[in-house]
Amino acid sequence: MGLLDMKSQLQLKTDDIKQKFACFNIEKFEIFSSTNLAYRSRAEFRIFHKDSKIYYAMSDKNKKLFTINNCAIVDKNIAKTMQKLLLKLQENEILSKKLFAVEFLNSTQNDIIVTLIYHKKLDDIWSEKAKEIENILHIKLIGRSKKQKIVVSTDIITNIIKINDTKYLYEYKDTTFVQPNHEINQKMIDFINQHIKTGGDMCELYCGAGNFTIPLSAKFDKLLATEINKTSIKLSKQNAKINKIENIKFARLSSSEFAQAKNKLREFRRLKELDIDLLEYNFSTILVDPPRAGLDEQTLFLLKEFEQIVYISCNPDTLKENLKTILKTHKIKKFAFFDQFVWTKHIEIIVILESI
Would you call 203 a catalytic residue per the annotation? Predict the structure, then answer.
């Protein structure tokens, strides 16, 4: 795709996916484009050492490293920080020696976490030098090596999403899953918020740190959101508290575990400890944002119980397979493409379905 302009690439991607889903006779596909440069708020780079110097590097499709001087797709704050950081690391052997990789996570507020990953044990001297660079570059620095994580000051950054006239404040950590394109993330939330049918209670599986849960909370009486990652669950609870939202309960369950609990196949102490009784919910809507593997059979079977389904997918192939089952009980109301990953073959899809 590298020889095509951005508009042509997006057309190529969407035409290919339209053909993939042609068997479902979808009446309309909506397409949401992204800024073509400086859009990515999360990035990871290898570090290449040569002749006492260090360089940022990436791997090609054959896993061969090549050095880079800059990266056009990372957002402006990451790009600026990358260059300044490399110079400071180069000046200090304690920080550059056995440095293996660098990860960047930037928020909408240009609140940035930089994680330095090493093939060596980090000590107090490393922490002192890292603190100096953190202060000079105005970043939040973390050091990692095998079985070791050193947070120089804090590993939390703040993010803001605006829906209509309401601002939602989020806290993220370095290991939190976040949508890597702030612009497209905003469009995705706006799209769901605009087209979703309100009322009743909502269930969300794979809720992360509450990215979709929190702004959608005003649309429903009660929400139950589940996630398997402990850090994400802790952050989602904190984010709801920060935004003074009281109609959401968060539970650490996988999608299949929730299906077992909902169908009374198994009891979970985690639900009892949180005083969550599924019988108290009048679920009308379920939102799922599964990994690339898609939904398992138990969760697919569960979906038929909901009047409205919002399916967010990063893999058209597994989405297509899942829709073969879902469309036995539901019909497609909205189908939209979001160009989350410009200059790549990947695209995000949101499907809103309603019961037949």
Answer: no
Q: Which residue is catalytic, options 103, 132, 134, 314?
A: 314
Encode pLDDT of 123-138 as tens digits: 999 999 999 999 999 9
Instruction: Assess whether 306 and 220 both reside in one domain.
Output: yes
**Structure tokens that stand for 12 in this block:** 């190529």
SS3 letters for 184-244?
HHHHHHHHHHHHCCCCCEEEEECCCCCCCHHHHHHHCCCEEEECCCHHHHHHHHHHHHHCC
Same domain, 224 and 331: yes
Same domain? For 342 and 310 the reply is yes
The dihedral sign for the CA sequence 226, 227, 231, 236: negative
User: What sign has the CA pseudo-torsion 250, 253, 255, 259?
Assistant: negative
What's the pTM value of the predicted model, to 2 decimals? 0.92
User: Which tokens in the block code for residue 14?
Assistant: 């969407």
CATH number, domain at 96? Answer: 2.40.50.1070
Q: How many CA atoms lie within 13 A of 234 on its CB side?
A: 8
Which residues, other chains included, contact 188 with Cβ-Cβ below 8 Å and sequence gap of 6+?
A: 32, 179, 212, 312, 338, 348, 350
Q: H helices within the chain, ranges in order?
A: 6-20, 76-91, 93-96, 124-137, 182-195, 213-216, 230-242, 255-262, 269-273, 297-303, 316-326
Concerning whether 314 is annotated as a catalytic residue, the answer is yes
Burial, 328: exposed, middle or buried (Cβ in 10 Å; 0-12, 13-18, 19+)?
exposed
The beta-strand segments (E) located in 14-59 are 30-32, 42-50, 53-59
Please determine, for residue 3, whether its predicted confidence score (pLDDT) is greater than 60: no
Confirm if 289 and 350 have CB atoms less than 8 A apart. no
Q: How far apart are CA 209 and CA 211, in angstroms?
A: 6
Same domain, 185 and 99: no
Same domain? For 202 and 313 the reply is yes
